[in-house]
Amino acid sequence: MKQIILLTLMAVSTMVFAQEKKYKITKIPTQNSSVWGAIPTVKGEIIFVENINNATNKAYTSRLILMDRNNKETILPSFEKYQRIGSPYISDDGKEFYFVTSGTAHSSTVKNILKSGTTYYPLQLMILTNTGNEWSQPVEFKYNSDKHSIADPCLSSDGKYLYFASDKKGGYGGADIYRCKRNTDGSWNEPENLGANINTKENERFPRFDAKGNLYFSSTANTNGDMDLFVCSPEGNSFKTPVKMDNPFNSEGDDFAISFIDENSGYISSNRDGGADHIYLFESEIIKKPESVKTDTIKKTVNIEPDKIKTIDTVKKLETVTPDIILSDLLQKEKLQYINFEFDKWRITDKHIPALKDLVNFMKQYPSVIMEVAGHTDCIGKNDYNMKLSHKRATSVKDYLVNNGIDSNRIVVKEFGSANPLTDCVKSTIESANKTNRRVEYKVIKY
Question: Lower Cβ count inside 10 Å, N or C end of the chain?
Answer without folding.
Answer: N
